[in-house]
Task: structure prediction
Amino acid sequence: MTTDGELALTAARAGAAVVRNMYGTSLTRFDKGGGDFATAADVEAEKAILDVLRGARPYDGVVGEESGRTGPHGAERVWLVDPLCGTLNYAARSMLVAVNVALRVGSEVTAAASADPFAGEVFWTDGVDAYARRDGEDQRLTPSSGTRLVDVNLDPPFPNAPDFRAARLLADAGFAGRFRPRVVSTTLAVAWVAAGRRAAYVTDGHLRDSVHFAAGIALCRAAGCVVTGLHGQPPHTGAGGLVVAADRETHAALLEIIGRQAPRER
Result:
């Protein structure tokens, strides 16, 4: 039987093929309110992913960004599906997007994949190790802070405002002196931390069971990154947020900078 890690990879690749094939076409948009929208590519990619998952694991639950929760009620195994992370990028004909698939068993994500439809690679984990698959070959992911590039998510919501605003990091002298900011507006950047292409990633928000972030967080944990909330607390607790860093030195530096604008929880 196909392992959960391989299934996550296969499902993400199925969604990525749809995203790639529909790129540049005239796409119907579906308004979600608040300036958010989905496109026909989001919907069709999710259908392709769900076809793979339901065919292999018919008794698992699924939470899809576009279709919501389906499958057996109360299932312990639940797949979290983000068929196109970076919809606004995609609609503007920018290729910075990701297709995310993660499996939560109980309270833990045990398998995940994040596919880059245009680079032809999939970052994936079996919950123990993390890899990048290109041309049928796997290469183990190795985090590194050598680039000094830190991706900062500037998209809402901002539950910790006004105490913390990710945008203010960019104006902090300590941040500018040590790091180089990037804003790609897709959680592909979280996978890039695991792969050594980013030194770190910072976002606000409450991310438990997030279809956008579950895969990237699982990849970073399996690769050996430092993964915490905004104040260094365990993920999905307290103030929430996310600080993912390639190493402890980078993580500590970011927590110090964040602490200058956001007081630690008492």
Summary: The mean pLDDT is 95. The longest strand covers residues 77-85. The helical segments are 4-22, 40-56, 87-91, 166-169, 173-178, 188-194, 214-223, 248-259.
